[in-house]
Amino acid sequence: MNFIEIICPDCGKGAMVKIPNHLFKKGTLNAIKIHIESGICCNHRFLAFVSNKHKAIGYEKLDSVVLNKTRTQKHIFSLKTILDNFNNQIVLLFFRALLLSCPIIIVSEQDLSVEINEYNYFFNSLLPEKHLNPFLFSYYSRENLKENMNEISLILTDDLSIEQIPWASIPFDIEKQFFLEGFQIMDRDGQIYVMKVKISTLFDKVIYLIDSLNRIIEIERRYNRKIYKLDENQNDRIFYEDECDKIIIKKYGENITKLELDLIRLIALNRFHANIQRNDNNSKKVKKIKLPQKKIKNLFKKL
Ligand SMILES: [Zn+2]
Q: What does the alpha-carbon distance between residue 74 and residue 78 come to, in Å, rounded to a whole number?
């Protein structure tokens, strides 16, 4: 995946957008044309032309009307439509892949471009703005699958058999909650709103964890410098699961469930690439620096 800076030709708002490598065919000099849907960069939709050097070199406006409540909605897929096309279990897998930012690949010999567009639009509308992934869903023929898949993709076929699940298995209770809360609401926009709030709240916790881990790394680095100790392992600082859980519980209270802790860590690991490992009391691979208790207290006051 490449991140490419896209700037809206209408309002000038910019965003970093992930573009899959396979879109750039080797040996071609032509720019590729990418459809930027509303909600990806800003509220406008437009075409971006991206050079084979992975730079946006031009834009074309598609419509100059800002999406708002009065505009007729182009996208029509709701949870119900998606459930009609798949089944409960697969929709839960989609939610999990959405949270973890795992690419979802549907193997099909048919042209699914319209559906894929709708799935991407629907699931992206559930994410906080900063975390959009417009290429969450893609489809390939069996022949092209190999060169486009990787070990982090969720892969299923259009006759609904699941071929690869890339994450550590933990129950889907939280995704099920999101789904059920959304499903109780008939109105499509209301559905999206309710689920988006739920997911944003979960993401806030993940981001709090990530910020805390980064801050710990920074404080340890400073402390090391102070005592003239250079630690070459500093960049490989591993955090264990129970360390992470303590940080979250301290902030969000004891009544956070074990399952939610597991999911928060899984998102931190997969989506944000945090260096989190299983609790392993025998491992002496990483020397943890003992900070004075007072320092740790101060640290958490600041967070
Ligand atoms: Zn715009």
A: 12
| Alpha-carbon separation of residue 273 from 218, 239, 283, 297 (angstroms) | 17, 12, 21, 26
Q: How far is the CA of 14 from the centre of ligand 1 (A)?
A: 8
43 alpha carbon – ligand 1 mean position (Å)? 6
Taking the centre of ligand 1 as the mean of its atom positions, its distance from the CA of residue 289, in whole angstroms, is 48
In whole angstroms, what separates CA 220 from the centre of its chain? 28
CA of 42 to the centre of ligand 1 (A): 5
Distance (angstroms) between ligand 1 centre and the Cα of 9 equals 7
Ligand 1 centroid, distance to 40 Cα (angstroms): 10
For the stretch 242-268, pLDDT in tens is: 999 999 999 998 889 999 999 999 999
Q: pLDDT tens-digit profile of 53-64?
A: 788 888 888 764
pLDDT at 232: 58
Give dist(CA 56, CA 35) in Å, integer: 12
pTM over 0.85: no
